[in-house]
Design goal:
alpha+beta; globular; 5 helices; 33% strand
Length: 118
């Protein structure tokens, strides 16, 4: 539904940001890594988005690049992994490092990734 959101960063919290677009504030849940890299309040930012809809929740998840978005989508396709677990994974490992751990069967790296999110 929303490919990306571009606007002024008006708030950064522990697990989400708010981006203002012409007076409408979009709350977008992001990884810890994204929060640390997104920039300062007042900057114009662009996040690729995933519109998440379930029985009891509707929200937006945001990603700094398409690689993160694609990893999030792939993680959601795994049985037992929901949006919170997927974003927790992205908070702790980059998509390229995660892919390398999978390809090389690096169980130690994979088991160190926390599955819970704030």
């Amino acid at each position: 539904m929303f490919a990306y959101i571009k606007g002024e960063l008006v708030e950064k919290a522990s697990n989400y940001v708010v981006i203002d677009i012409n007076g409408i504030g979009f709350q977008i849940f992001v990884s810890d890594l994204a929060i640390s890299q997104i920039g300062d309040i007042g900057n114009i930012v662009k996040l690729h988005t995933y519109y998440y809809v379930r029985e009891d929740v509707v929200c937006l998840y945001g990603f700094l690049n398409r690689e993160e978005l694609r990893m999030f989508e792939l993680l959601l396709s795994v049985s037992g992994i929901g949006a919170k677990s997927a974003i927790a994974t992205l908070s702790n490992i980059t998509p390229s490092s995660f892919a390398l751990a999978i390809i090389t069967n690096n169980i130690a790296t994979l088991t160190k990734i926390p599955r819970s999110w704030k």
